[in-house]
Amino acid sequence: MPPMTRQRYWNNIPQPHAAVYYSKRAAKGGLIITEATVISEAGRGHKDTPGIWSKEQVEAWKPIVDAVHAKGGIIFCQIWHMSISRMANPLSPPPGTSNELKSQLQANAEEPAKFSPPRRLRTDGIPQVVDQYRVAARNAMEAGKSGQSGTQAISICRLLGFGGSNPTALGIYMAESLNKYGILYCHMVEPRMKLAEESFETTESLLPMKKAFKGTFIVAGEYDKDDGNKVFA
């Protein structure tokens, strides 16, 4: 089952209803990827998404993982960091950040006043985010040790929209870098879907990145039946 953000986790704590939701979709040998799970308080970008940076969150994930394992399923935790950061305290910005950026989108029509503006990440702030990913990955594995001996929740990470002056060169660099770690698959969204809930014609292509990546390359992006058939024609 692919991930789908649901925003039903008050105060970023996984809720008991999630065990029902995931277990209903679990099957022996089936792979479930969790909805995006935030690695730190400063990395939040949507309201009421689950987190995995605290002990309380890890404990709340355990019965969810157990429910999937009880059905013989496999569950991966999708760990992510949205930005630096719309949800952080604007009076106490995260270290390693600089000037505020104007937000172009408000998630789910939330009032702009409820979010602090995102902040640009400085080079000296990168090690902190890397460490947050490390802690979150260990927490995901800890959540997976509950209940069944020898089973663990395995972590994958999500990278949000990269661009810059040369997105093709950056994409190739990222693909080649991922190859060094034996990554099983890379799941990308078509460039035509850079704008939320709106597709448009573009000359940009993921083909150079696909050719550079040695694992399985998965692409999504507002495909309907006819679009999908054209890809495989």
Automatic annotation (TrEMBL):
Pfam families: Oxidored_FMN. It comes from the Eukaryota. Its cofactor is FMN. Keywords: Flavoprotein, FMN, NADP. Gene3D superfamilies: Aldolase class I (3.20.20.70). InterPro entries: Aldolase_TIM, OxRdtase_FMN_N, Oye-like. Residues 90-121 are annotated as: Disordered. Residues 1-144 form the NADH:flavin oxidoreductase/NADH oxidase N-terminal domain. Residues 97-107 have a biased composition (Polar residues). Signal peptide: none annotated. One of its GO terms (molecular function) is oxidoreductase activity. Belongs to the NADH:flavin oxidoreductase/NADH oxidase family. This is Detected protein of confused Function. It comes from Hibiscus syriacus.
